[in-house]
Amino acid sequence: MERPWPASLFTAGRRSVTKEAQALGARHTNRGPYIREREVDSKVIDSFNGLITSSLTKLVWLNANTDAGKRFAGATVKATADFIADEEMVAASNAWFRFSGTNHRDGLTLASVGLSPLKTRFAMMLPPKLIGDPHKAWFEMTRDVHVATAPLFGLIAVPSLADRAALIEAGRLWQRMHVQATVFGLAVQPLNQLMEMVDRDQALKHPSEAEKALNSLSAIGSDVFAFAFRMGHSRFITNPSPRRGIDEVLGS
Ligand SMILES: Cc1cc2nc3c(=O)[nH]c(=O)nc-3n(C[C@H](O)[C@H](O)[C@H](O)COP(=O)(O)O)c2cc1C
Description:
Elements (H helix, E strand, L loop, with lengths): L18 H6 L17 H8 L8 E6 L3 H18 L2 H8 L2 E2 L9 E2 L7 H9 L8 H16 L2 E7 L5 H21 L2 E4 L2 H12 L4 H7 L8 E9 L13 H4 L3
Parallel strand pairs: 2-3
Antiparallel strand pairs: 1-4, 4-6, 5-6
Bound molecules: flavin mononucleotide.
């Protein structure tokens, strides 16, 4: 087909691949142990603050050794206990466990729950029936690994949970932060049990202990927390989660 422009108008450009673009393939949620005594540098934290591009989102940081950090950790463990005591929540969450079979390329796989490389190998050789209760394991991992080994927690606040634009901005901010963390060689994991219990309590019209705990963490005016995570240096390299090929996600 003839082009409507002369070929001489175009010259070959230089291919430039940013650090962030390179980090995309390596980015993954890290559910393993972090090095508690290795703090995240305050300059690094500042650069994450610089990723905020919308007035609808705020970032709050909690050092794990502070009172507020300890309260976040304790309340997250309690929210996990409340989550796994709720049969409907457990059934909904079970639907996302991918501990056997290889047909899914989403959800939570055994390889990405944050076990050490040796334990992962061992667990993957076990027949599914012998793996045990994944929710009990999740509770124990939350208490003994996720909050116990993280030096730093973070929360993203928005004006309202009903503000869809703000929730999308919170998600976009998290995506940028996760890629940036990968560039810095930092491990991150969302820790949203408190948010999940706030939603659950609202659905059941219960007074929410989780909401009270979140509100006590930091003065954020009338804003509310929409997303929480931990950050640190990983103790070991954990496995990535499965990815779908581009052909599987592109619409025709
Ligand atoms: C809105 C949202 C909330 C999430 N909350 C949690 C969480 O509380 N705990 C967790 O381990 N992962 C959480 N995740 C991470 C996803 O489970 C993760 O992105 C998924 O397993 C894909 O893995 P990847 O990040 O390695 O690509 C959350 C992700 C999103 C988008």
